[in-house]
Structure to design on (405 residues):
């Protein structure tokens, strides 16, 4: 494959679920392709590539990642270190296998530039490599530069930093760094001075969010690119019923039956896309006022038509409705989703519920109140709309500069 002067650009996605990670890649891929680059993608989940990246002439590969991870309570994840240790690898021996797999992929592609979308193990594997590295994605996957040398490493916003917790987090940092550097030594690679160096090695970043959705707080002087609107989809087929229109974009979760009961009792006109919906629930709750669909519809149309929306806090979904000033009820399934909406919850345009609640009736009543709509509109007025031309120019400049550094 090597042997040509054509720039080779590799995109990698290792952690996280959903189409948002792929969505962040489309515009940079289009820019790279327009520059004449050969573009490769190593993706965690391949099925969504057709939905998000259809029509792009890219070479597709399967990304290495830790599989069979057993769920643990979100409260046990107190910092980024815990996320790496539990989601990415559990020991030096396991990490070594992933590093070897990633390095075999690097050898296959021989990239000049690599863009990492939530890919910490791939970044560890890339440590010491000469190709240029760019971090890509929403704020949670791009730790801010000012914390990369901090100790402990990136405690989460909800973690209470009392002396005992800080001491434990520092010990956990040291243990994880020792595992990483044991693998670096085995593979004759330079050691990492700190866990933050996993991200600190990057030559650039593309921060695909807005300041109000930055889980680490606004970063002065850092360009916020926003995220591109979702591609046009089918028009939402609302039920032919009275009542406020409510759109839900969900996955199956413990209290879903109770949520469906409460939506029916509220006499709303509900259109719901529920991933992994049990057939028994579809049969039990389908009605003239509540319709289930199996394919994503045009969220921009939904934003114009819905009184409020219901979802888990996925970044791109929340951003779409934030910009449109639509009230939102979120039921986070993991910490990234929880953190994404915290600032909007504080500003009053988003309400938060939990996936094991005994009832959602009060939340459904609250999200329909006029003050929520007013707060949502106020938030929207504080956000710059997505400027595709400016973002394309920014991406192009970064890629051009990196080719000649």
């Amino acid at each position: 494959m090597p042997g040509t002067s054509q720039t080779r650009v590799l995109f990698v996605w290792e952690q996280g679920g959903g189409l948002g990670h792929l969505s962040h890649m489309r515009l940079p891929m289009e820019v790279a392709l327009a520059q004449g680059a050969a573009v490769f993608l190593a993706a965690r989940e391949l099925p969504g590539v057709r939905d998000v990246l259809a029509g792009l002439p890219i070479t597709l590969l399967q990304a290495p990642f830790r599989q069979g991870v057993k769920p643990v309570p979100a409260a046990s994840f107190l910092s980024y270190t815990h996320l790496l240790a539990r989601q990415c690898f559990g020991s030096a021996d396991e990490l070594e296998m992933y590093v070897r797999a990633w390095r075999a992929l690097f050898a296959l592609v021989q990239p000049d530039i690599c863009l990492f979308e939530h890919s910490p193990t791939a970044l560890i594997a890339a440590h010491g490599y000469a190709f240029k590295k760019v971090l890509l994605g929403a704020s949670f996957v791009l730790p801010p530069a000012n914390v990369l040398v901090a100790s402990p490493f990136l405690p989460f916003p909800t973690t209470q930093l009392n002396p005992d917790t800080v001491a434990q987090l520092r010990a956990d940092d040291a243990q994880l760094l020792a595992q990483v550097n044991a693998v670096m030594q085995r593979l004759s690679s330079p050691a990492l001075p700190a866990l933050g160096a996993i991200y600190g090695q990057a030559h650039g970043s593309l921060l695909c969010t807005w300041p109000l959705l930055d889980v680490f707080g606004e970063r002065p002087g850092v360009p916020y690119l926003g995220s591109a609107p979702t591609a046009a989809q089918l028009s939402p087929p609302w039920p032919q019923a009275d009542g406020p229109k409510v759109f839900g974009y969900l996955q199956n979760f413990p209290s879903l039956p109770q949520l469906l009961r409460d939506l029916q009792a509220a006499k709303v006109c509900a259109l719901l896309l529920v991933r992994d919906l049990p057939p028994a629930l579809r049969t039990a709750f389908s009605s003239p006022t509540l319709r289930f669909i199996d394919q994503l519809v045009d969220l921009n149309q939904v934003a114009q038509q819905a009184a409020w929306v219901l979802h888990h806090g996925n970044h791109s979904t929340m951003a779409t409705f934030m910009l449109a000033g639509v009230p939102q009820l979120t039921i986070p399934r993991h910490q990234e989703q929880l953190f994404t909406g915290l600032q909007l919850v504080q500003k009053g345009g988003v309400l938060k519920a939990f996936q094991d609640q005994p009832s959602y009736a009060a939340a459904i009543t609250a999200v329909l109140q006029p003050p929520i709509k007013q707060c949502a509109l106020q938030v929207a007025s504080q956000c710059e709309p997505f400027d595709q031309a400016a973002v394309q120019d920014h991406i192009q400049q970064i890629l051009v500069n990196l080719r000649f550094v």
